[in-house]
Amino acid sequence: MSMALKQVFNKDRTFRPKRKFEPGTQRFDLLLMDWIEVQINNENIFPTNVGTPFPKTFMQVAKKILSRLFRVFVHVYIHHFDRVSQMGAEAHVNTCYKHFYYFVTEFNLTDHKELEPLVKLQPRYCT
């Protein structure tokens, strides 16, 4: 693990930057994606061998990952969607969000209150 990553992990391997980063900044987003990658690659959380049981904390960790990914969608839609549209990537981002939304709602992986920041978009993209 890089020194930069070691600086943002507590001993329980949760993502808590020691320095305050404004959510949505490039540095915060990179650290967040690195944290998610570490979680997904951790075989104690996401076992890769058939027959290995998932830990009791699996759902808690998965929900935390999805909650933080949702915040990235919120940031993109609120602060960068004009740029996304200029690049012609609007349909791609909308499709990613639609799949994300259906996945987390189908399997009850997030509280509906957490989805409120983009509630106005859901009828438009998730029908």
Automatic annotation (TrEMBL):
Q: Which N-terminal stretch is annotated as signal sequence?
A: none
Q: Give binding positions for Zn(2+).
A: 75, 80
Task: Write one Pfam family the protein is assigned to.
Answer: Mob1_phocein
SMART domains annotated for this entry? Mob1_phocein (SM01388)
Extract the Gene3D superfamilies matched here: MOB kinase activator
Q: Does the keyword Metal-binding apply?
A: yes
Query: What InterPro entries does the record point to?
Result: MOB_kinase_act_fam, MOB_kinase_act_sf
Q: In terms of domain of life, where is this protein from?
A: Eukaryota
Q: Which UniProt keywords apply?
A: Metal-binding, Zinc
The protein's name in its UniProt record: MOB kinase activator 3A
Organism per entry: Sander lucioperca
| Lineage of producing organism | Eukaryota, Metazoa, Chordata, Craniata, Vertebrata
The record's gene field reads mob3a
